[in-house]
């Protein structure tokens, strides 16, 4: 298993780190979203305990994501988060393949819902904002698995990413040379890099769905409804009466036509 973060990274002390730490601890202490949601203001309470990974990105066991994330035909199983992480990690993986070494298959990994190795906070893999490249050649804990020329090529990739991407080979304690992750929370620095890379963090294309529909789009909607509104829906990919009721509720709260149909405007609320 990859990845190890020092408890408090030397360059990331202060409020953001401790805020993230507290949120993660809330989770590991077993405080369920549903348990807090009853405290009043269902939607607000649920939003307040949105899980985040170590880097401040939303994490979830059923995170909506690009499961087709692949470079040179090598699939990163489970993919990465839609939007900026997809654009940025796609750049990193393509550049790695072009300038460091070819990708091996199997050997590249994406999303994984789990704590940091040896720690309690959620791994950045749990928010779909980290990838592992050529794991067999660069095992967790090993250092010096790349030649000097390859390290220079990696440095060039990181430099182009303006500090938004961190390499596990730069961890201060246990090295993790297979591992690359977003090192900034959602915000201006990430947006600026996406713009620089020429990508637009588009939300995924969403089909219009309503009661009776089944499949991944329904699963995504149920996940997002739970995250945004704390509805406690079973994420089973089956659009039934409970899902319809949740959709109607969130539509009413957001001033939309209350029809129980998840179309472009309702998706926009869910994806916001
Ligand atoms: Zn990793």
UniProtKB/TrEMBL annotation:
InterPro entries: Peptidase_M15C (IPR039561), Peptidoglycan-bd-like (IPR002477), PGBD-like_sf (IPR036365), PGBDSf (IPR036366), TAT_signal (IPR006311), Zn_M74/Hedgehog-like (IPR009045). Residues 214-270 form the Peptidoglycan binding-like domain. It comes from the Bacteria. Residues 118-182 form the Peptidase M15C domain. One of its GO terms (molecular function) is peptidase activity. It holds the Pfam family PG_binding_1. Gene3D superfamilies: 3.30.1380.10, PGBD-like superfamily/PGBD (1.10.101.10). Residues 1-20 are annotated as: Disordered. This is Uncharacterized protein. It comes from Auraticoccus cholistanensis. The lineage of its organism: Bacteria, Bacillati, Actinomycetota, Actinomycetes, Propionibacteriales.
């Amino acid at each position: 298993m990859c990845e190890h973060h020092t408890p408090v990274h030397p360059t990331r002390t202060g409020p953001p780190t401790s805020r993230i730490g507290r949120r993660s601890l809330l989770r590991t202490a077993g405080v369920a979203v549903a348990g807090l949601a009853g405290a009043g203001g269902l939607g607000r309470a649920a939003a307040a305990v949105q899980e985040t990974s170590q880097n401040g990105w939303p994490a979830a066991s059923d995170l909506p994501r690009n499961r087709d994330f692949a470079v040179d035909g090598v699939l990163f199983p489970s993919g990465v988060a839609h939007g900026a992480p997809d654009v940025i990690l796609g750049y990193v993986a393509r550049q790695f393949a072009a300038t460091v070494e070819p990708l091996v298959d199997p050997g590249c990994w994406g999303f994984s819902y789990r704590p940091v190795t040896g720690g309690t906070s959620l791994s950045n893999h749990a928010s779909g904002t980290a990838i592992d490249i050529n794991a067999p050649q660069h095992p967790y804990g090993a250092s010096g698995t790349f030649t000097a020329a390859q390290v220079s090529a990696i440095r060039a990739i990181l430099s182009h990413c303006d500090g938004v991407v961190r390499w596990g080979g730069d961890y201060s304690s246990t090295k993790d040379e297979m591992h690359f992750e977003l090192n900034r929370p959602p915000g201006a620095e990430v947006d600026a890099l996406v713009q620089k890379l020429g990508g637009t963090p588009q939300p995924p294309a969403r089909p219009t769905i309503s009661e009776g529909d089944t499949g991944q789009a329904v699963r995504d909607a149920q996940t997002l409804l739970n995250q945004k509104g704390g509805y406690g829906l079973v994420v089973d990919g089956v659009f039934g009466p409970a899902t319809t009721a949740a959709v109607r509720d969130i539509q009413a709260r957001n001033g939309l036509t209350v029809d129980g149909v998840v179309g472009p405007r309702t998706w926009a609320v869910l994806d916001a």
